[in-house]
Amino acid sequence: MDADIALMPEMWSIGYTRFDPEKTGAREEFYYDALALQDETVQRFAMLARDLDMAIGFTYLEQFEPAPRNALTLFDRPGEVVFTYAKVHTSDFKSMEASMTPGEGFPTGVLNTRAGPVRVGSMICFDREQPESARILMLQGAELVLTPPMPAD
Known about the structure:
three-stranded mixed β-sheet, Nitrilase/N-carbamoyl-D-aminoacid amidohydrolase, alpha/beta, 22% helix, single chain, 4 helices
């Protein structure tokens, strides 16, 4: 239908599953589902972007040290990485989020759409509640801000 971008819901790779912090080993089991950019599951979306000739914002639990991140990698129409962004403002009132490594900034990149180039950035969940998130993206020239929806519980 000539869409330029498909955007997955927040942490699509794991269905935004949580873990019980009181259960021994639950956190480690949760971390086991984290993916690296080079993993086949993530790269499948790069190939899909290329095959469909559309950008894809893939959301996932990203492997990272010392702990995984809630991340979004934006693939352009040829399937190349435009940027990987990780949620900056993780909340300390949810054990899952408190157990993750927060991102360090709000990257932007140019996405070549059918209508021409557009500078794109992203925010995930609680980041959109913080005024500086949008301000930083605006100062970097973002014309479009991708905000993955939260999956329904």
